[in-house]
Structure formats: C-alpha cells, structure tokens
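Page 37, top half.
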Amino acid sequence: MATELAQDYAAEFHREWTAAENTPVEFPPLDVNALVRRHRRAGGTVVVTQSMVWDMLVRQAYAPETYIPGRVRPGSARMYSTEEPDFVRVSDQRLWTDESRYTQVIQRVYVDRDRHAVFHLGTAHMTTPDGTHEWAGTEQPLYHLEYVVTDSELRPVLRRRVVHLTDAYDSRMSWHFARLVREQSLIELVETYLRLQWGIDLGPHPLSA
C-alpha cells in the first residue's frame, strides 16, 4: 500500500510539474554542510549527515510551527490522519510574495521513506473527521512541494522542487523564487533542527543568506 501511495503522490506531482499552465521552480541542489559552513558563527566543526537531513524533513512535515516558525503562524497547525499512511496538514502560512500576510494552506503530506522524499501537495478543500469544512486561502495559487535527500551519508544534498498551480505561467512568482534561491530559504529550518535535536547553536544572531 505504501509503495502504491508513493507512486500516486509522485505521479500527481509530475503531472502538475509538466502542465504547461503551471509555474514550476527547481532549486539548485543544496549541499547542506556547505550551507552550515557558510553560516557557522561559533567555533568548531559541524558535520550534518544524510540521516540527520532526512530526520529534519520528517520532523518539519509533522511539526511545521516548531521547525519553520518564520513561515507558519503559531498555533495554527493541525494534523489529520487518513486511512492510508499519509496525512493532511492545515496551517496559516505567510504568502510567498507578501510575508506580512498569512493565508490558510491545506496540504496532503506523504513521507516516502524508501526514496527519502517528502511530498506536500496543496489542496483547496478538506472535511475534518468531525465534519468541519476547511478551505485553503485564495490569496495565492495552490502549490506542491517535493523534497528529496540524495548523495552520501557524509555529504547530503537536498533537492527541492515547487510547482504553483496557476492558470498561466506566472513570471512574477518565478522571479520571487529565483530570489529565494539566492537567499537559501532553508537556513531557518537547518538552524532550528540542529539546535533542538543536537544542541548545536550556529551562533548568537539570526541567520541571513
């Protein structure tokens, strides 16, 4: 069942990734240890393993408020299990192009442990177990995310793709994510994970790329 579901998630992501009307963005592969070295402000050497990066992605999937507090409104995240080995996550997240505002985001999440991949597939609506209807905000298009950890245990590389479900290719959204590529948007997640799970503090000041 898990393998079948993994294939379903991968197929849905691929279908939207290749749809001509959507806006796909592929981030350059991220060498996690190179990122840490660039932003390490305290003394000593930190080596992040592939197992640690995978653990970080899984924890972030289940606890976004904890690991990406700069994107998710405190107190807004709710998780709903399904009859299959995936779950639905509802949270208020900052708009991609206006971080002073939040919108409700509903995502079907699947953790593919065989492939070391995590899918977050945006959806417009869900019904909770108690019959409550939840709707995604309309301030921005729905989007799908794919995270994959590759390469070796001592040199993990994180690969990221996002596709926005637009009516036509959106050059403004594409430009915004090109800027995010330069800003290395995963710094907050890596720093938070190392501090909470390993007691490693990269330094006394907030990170910026």
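Page 37, bottom half:
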Amino acid sequence: MPGPRTYPDRTAIDAAVAAGTRRILYTSQQGAVPGNPYRPSDIHIATEAILADSGVAWTALRNGAYDPLDQVLGPWRRTGEIAQPEDGPVPYTDRADIAEATAVILAGDRSFDGPVTLTAPTAVTFDDLTTIASDLTGRTIKRIVLDDEQWVAEQITIGVPEQLARLMLTWYQAARAGYFAEADPLLTELLGREPRTATDRLAAHIAGQTLSETAH
C-alpha cells in the first residue's frame, strides 16, 4: 500500500512541472509492478503513476537490489551457513555500476522514456551464492532455509523491530515469487562493459575482510 512517501513525491513532481522541468528522473526499483508482495513496490508504482500523469517526460530507474551482499547473506563467514528464508533468483547489482549508468543516462543524448530496468546480467539464488562462497573460500558453506516465522523471531531476538522484520520478509516473498528474476541487458549496454557479478562482489568482500583481519 502506498505510504506517506507518496505525497512528498507528488509535491516534488508538481513543483518540478511548475518550474518547467523537461524531464524527471526517478529512482524506482526492479519489480515495481502490481502484485509484488514487497511493500515498498506499492510506493514506487504510485509514484510512477503520478509521473505518467504529470505531462512531462520522465524516466524511472528500476534498479536491481544493490545492498551489500554480507547484509543480504548474514554472518555466513562466521557460521559457515547462509541461513535465510526461502528465496528466488535475483540479479544482485553493484551500487557503483548503477551510479555510473545513471550518470551516462543523465549526460547522454538518448532519451529513456518511462521505466527502465538496471540490473546485473545474471540472476542468482542463495543456493548459487552458497556454491560461489564455498568455491571462493575453500570451505563447505551450507544453505539453511528458515521458516518465515522462525526468521522473523530470530530478527526480533537480535533487536530488529517486528514491523521492520516483517517488511524485510516481504522482500524474500517477492523474490521466491519471481518478481526480481528477470535480468536486463541495459546496464551492460550503458556501461560499455560487463557489470560486476555476484561472484566479483563476493570475492571483493572476502578479500576486504581478509585484509582487515590481517591488519589486526
């Protein structure tokens, strides 16, 4: 359901139109379509609808998930387990790649009308990431599928408010329903190179942690 953010978005869009803005660029999210159980999707859908009715050209960047992978996977290096709810394929995308592609869109002469999707070229699951992590570390990393309510309870135990935990759970539910499964080639086209893959990002994270541990 659209939340309070929708109304500031409308105010900002109305102000931009009144100021004579020729194009509005909006940061949306991949899978911003009706039926997506991930609750923030409703806000993005509502904002894109306001943009469509605004009378000016607009572009919505439906960015792929770009949170740090250690945040997504949990403390797997310490536990040897990726213990999260049931998931689905997601083209986990590098934040820096999205920023670079956004700069290309802003600086270029090509118009992108309506929603455009910016994702890594390949969608992967936690099972895939478990295999990747095992190969990179030389350890046997296990994938543990947690029951939704068990996961929520564990989040509450470590201090996450229940409302936030249940909001986060809707992301896993959306992933397992396939709302983030489609990878798009546009990011590769805009960058003029292959975007960083989940393997690249996980390897960099492991290397960074190893250097930090060595320094201490």
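Margin note: Residues 22 and 177 are 37 Å apart (CA to CA).
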